[in-house]
Give the backbone structure.
Amino acid sequence: MTRGAVRGRTARPWLVTGLVVAAVVGVLAGTAATAQPPVPGLVGPGPMIRYGVPVARVLLDLAALVTVGLSLLPKLLGFDRPAHTEPVLAVARPAAVVTSAVWVVAALAALVLQTAELHPGEPVTVGDVAGYVRRIGAGEGLVIVAACALAYLVVAVLAVRWGETVPAELRIVVAMFAVLPLPVTGHAANTGVNLHDLSMISMELHVMAAVAWTGGLAAAVTLLATNRGLLADVLPRFSRLATIALATVAVTGVFNGWFELYLTPGIHWYTALATTGYGRLVLVKVACLVTLAALGAIIRYRLLPRIVRHERTALAGWAATELAVMGLAFGIAVVLTRTPVIS
Amino acid sequence: MRRVLAVLLLAVTAVLGLATPAFAHNVLLGSDPADGAKLATGPAKVTLTFDQPVQFGFNTVTVTSTDGAHWEAGPATVAGNAVSAPVRPLGPAGEYTIGYRVLSADGHPVTGAVRFTLTTPGTGTPASVAPTGTAAPSAGGGGGTPVWPWIVGAVVLLAAGVVIALRLGRSEDGQR
């Protein structure tokens, strides 16, 4: 049997379709739901910009999480059975080159679109972008992300060339480092408040846990969906990671959502949950999380014991569903970082 | 895995240490004239006060009447939490709208409107050409080179690099 045949049998890239579609649908629906009426006398950004910015940001997130997931894969697979794991990693390494390239492009596109958002009705010039990067934290953050993703791309190319002698830890750290800058430039924090630092750390933990959880699942199921031998090894390891990630995402997410509502003057956070677009999106995300916990529990307690016994299961369907719900949550997350609580 | 976690914790600390303070979105607390105010004479300037400092630059304040004519007399200026703009003597009685777009430090523009009513007609005339009312000339102003060609170039370069890298990887594969 050739290696090509093995690749063809185990890789199921379509399993992330639901993730991507749900993320884009989530971000478009959320943007439309929180759209503000045009202000008389002000030239507003056109629909290309209004929808282009969130779409670029969610594609950036997806490229980031798949890249992180592909970086985690060697750790999940372990190194004790190279004859079985090497064909899978030989697919994962070039895939990471492609996803990190998408990551770089999405960061640059987001940078230009966000600059354009501040200059409605004018063509964006190089000077505009330079000014945006110099003066706005979000611009600086996107440049750092693009640079880190580019650094990852170089490491990924080295890994394609030299295989697993390029340490998996290096890839994980570079990928995770590229995830870090953007959350602190969202509206994670306020000055003059003691909870300021805590909310920034909480936001970073939230993003890292969500990215590792979703990315790990996406990489594991797309590359191993039908490889029962490896799934029996990988899924128990992933399950532990997922449990920690679920708990982290829940605690930090509830805290961040509450904190943002609590800080906004002129409203009570408990009524704002129902009366503001922001609050309603927070509730939708909580619903996503509950659904994810239920789906995760089904995989963990119903499928996992059979997977460990190398039995055939409907894992692909359940995992694809879970990924779609995760995609929706990522789409809404992008809207939440951009939406003012009250307008 | 533990080593990775340690490195990540260090990375988080480094990022937080370097991070410039990010602000949440600004929220409008009040304005002069206030929303819904009824005035006998037009104000010489309008002031919008927010819950936290407004980023300098990129801010726009406009005053328009219901027919769409512009009445602001110059660009917006920032003073701490407040943004203000001078206003021309107003004309016909009726409702005027103060429209604003200010920039939160997180890079997200915040827009909104405040309305007031002029009860006694003034003698002023609207600006013939609507001033853009930007507080600073568009940032940087680096010669007006459009940016899209650069982005397209970067994408093409990256795509070519990826294709070449993957080709090299595959031929290496084949030799083994």
Summary: Residues 1-8, 188-192 of chain A have pLDDT under 50 and may be disordered. Chain A has 13 helices and no strands. The longest helix of chain A spans residues 82-118. Chain A has one domain: 18-28+45-338.
